[in-house]
Amino acid sequence: MGQAGLLDRLSALDTNTVSDALDFLQLKGATYGIRPLWDCPKIVGRASTVQLGVKEQGAAPTTHLLTPVIDAVSTNDRILVISGGTEGISCWGDIIANASKCKGIRGSVIDGMSRDIDGSRDIDYPVYGRGVTMISARNRLVQIDSGSPIQMRGVTVNQDDFVIADRCGTVFVPAERIEEVLELGERIDRRQALMVQDVRSGKAVSEVMHDTKFEAFHQARPSTDVKEVTQTAFGNPKKATTEDQELSALFAESDTPGISDALDKLGINGQAFNIMPLSNYKKVTVGPAFTVRYVPASDPPGSVGDFIDDVAEGDVIVIDNGGRTDCTVWGDIMTQYAGLRGIAGTVIDGVCRDVNRAINDDYPIFSAGRWMRTGKDRVQVGGVNESIGIGKVRVQSRDIVVADANGVVIVPRHRAREVAEIARRIEQSEEGIRASIAAGSSIAEAREKLGYHLLQRKG
């Protein structure tokens, strides 16, 4: 098959599926920490490798890094893959983005930083990297080599290897194994589509995601003549209790900043550190915690997702994966099933994947990051509905979780009414301050009048 055909097949997949295929084949290719630096589209192409390094003091001026590689590109299938970036120092900017766009380069993947990222965004040039900065590479970094093997976050990438990058991260596929990876990836994709159909039809997720289903990926190619499954009326037999509904309702009109202030005033540690929303949610997610603790996988490995059949309508699933960022514990099938069962949202001290599904379905997920590599055979459920830790906060089963675009707070169940009352007072006072400012008061006058300095003080 020609290169264009291989790229078309790779484009039909996502990084999650390609990562799974690499796992089955015991190949390294999935990287963590290289993410889209603006809301750019997925890119798929062949690697043009570049090695950068620190410029030695007193060395003579050189040609601007990357320009020889850009000038040498003669096909429209190239992705620049750049290694050797230094923390805080840019190795990409808007001028070379414009030059790359003119040459038909599909995008850049940088194990380093970019500056002038708005310039890349404005011309619709995709850039994936570790982060952004304003500090120039001039007289700090030089190009050492190109077209040779490089290291990208622990993965060896050769010239002409295949690259796929999307919202979940970046994956490299050895050119000599691409057809094998594609064939297996397509098989995984088809079988997962059937699993989603099974979930929609009402099958228990414990049956759908049984280990035997995953083992079937190794089996012969399934028939593509798949009968459509009609989605049946679907509900959750486990309903919220009256008390759960009452306690959740206390926070329905609040937000996490107000509740955080109330927790501070009461001396309660409830702000989950570094657990952030997957998207800029406009609504607040509230519900009792259904706690799940993951542990490293045993031999043979145990269950990864059966617990979801026991989660009640309106619950928030809170997963302690020990802050691990090397494998995920949540993907699109879990998102689909949770949405159908009326689960309020998911909080993960770890990473998630298949983020397009969650974002498009508007299913709230709050996590320490996103990555495409599966947790299967790496982690398993160690316990449910027991005390766990999330972002340096202790969470008991049935504590009240409140999450929004600002982050996640945990309210101890036995103090929920007290916290809600303090949060209500704080929010009323802040509303009064805003009204006073709008009427012409200075912010100092408004704060003094309404006792703002006392709002978060303990006691």
Summarize the structure in words.
The chain has two domains: 28-173, 3-Layer(bba) Sandwich (Glucose Oxidase, domain 1); 242-418, Glucose Oxidase, domain 1 (3-Layer(bba) Sandwich), CATH 3.50.30.40. Helix 4 links the parallel strand 4 (78-83) and strand 5. Helix 10 (256-266) crosses helix 13. Strands 1, 2, 3, 4, 5, 7, 9, 12 and 13 form a nine-stranded mixed β-sheet that branches. The protein has helices spanning 3-11, 15-24, 67-72, 94-102, 117-122, 178-201, 205-208, 211-215, 242-249, 256-266, 332-340, 355-361, 416-438, 443-449; strands at 30-31, 35-36, 43-54, 78-83, 107-110, 113-114, 127-129, 131-132, 141-146, 150-152, 155-157, 162-166, 169-173, 276-277, 285-296, 316-328, 345-352, 365-370, 379-384, 388-390, 393-395, 400-404, 407-411. The protein has 459 residues and is α/β, with parallel strands linked by helices.
